[in-house]
Design brief:
Length: about 90
């Protein structure tokens, strides 16, 4: 199957991601416990292999790195929507 670039659709980029989110007022100790528990689970070879089998790439990032990624992704798609006059009805 040809890629979009090979079909003449230049500059196309889209991906999905999954993350764990918590309410903004979640206490830091709770966030830290969740973060370290998730890191421990995702370090398990069986868990990693299960995700790999589903085509999922595990990206080991800090809370701050994930926050920056989510904000950048949001801004990218907000700009696409604005420039394309895309509105939710």
């Amino acid at each position: 199957m040809p890629t979009l670039d090979e079909l003449g659709v230049k500059g196309y980029e889209a991906s999905t991601f999954t993350g764990i989110f918590a309410p903004a007022d979640t206490p830091r100790p709770v966030l830290d416990k969740l973060y370290f528990s998730l890191r421990k689970a995702l370090a398990n070879d069986t868990v990693r292999e299960r995700y790999r089998g589903m085509g999922v790439e595990i990206i080991d990032s800090s809370q701050a790195e994930f926050d920056a990624f989510v904000r950048a992704d949001y801004e990218k798609w907000r700009r696409v929507a604005r420039e394309g006059n895309i509105v939710v009805e």
